Amino acid sequence: MSQAMDSRSPLELAYHQAAGVRNRYEEELRKKANVLGVGVGMKMREGKPTGEVAIVVLVKEKVPSDQLMPDDVVPDEIEGIPVDVHVIGDLSAYS
Q1: What is the CATH number of the domain that holds 26?
Q2: Tens digits of residue pLDDT in 49-72
Q3: Rounded CA gap, 95 and 87, in Å?
Q4: Half-sphere exposure of 80 (CA within 13 A, CB side)
């Protein structure tokens, strides 16, 4: 279906586009140091949503780019979709 005939809102279309990009790059992103997960959500700035859809990379801790191996640096954007890194710390299973 063409975008002209698509009845979805611009936000829904942005999520759909970002989800496709996430699906193509998730495996590559999950191989990077500290990365625990990859999803799609709203880009955050100073703890508040910007209204912009982003690929969200969940990490144990943020590490300055200059302290990472080049292959472990998370890009600022992928295929024009912004990438937002969120620190979630260590994950533990509860029973």
Answers
A1: 3.30.300
A2: 999 999 999 999 999 999 999 999
A3: 24
A4: 4
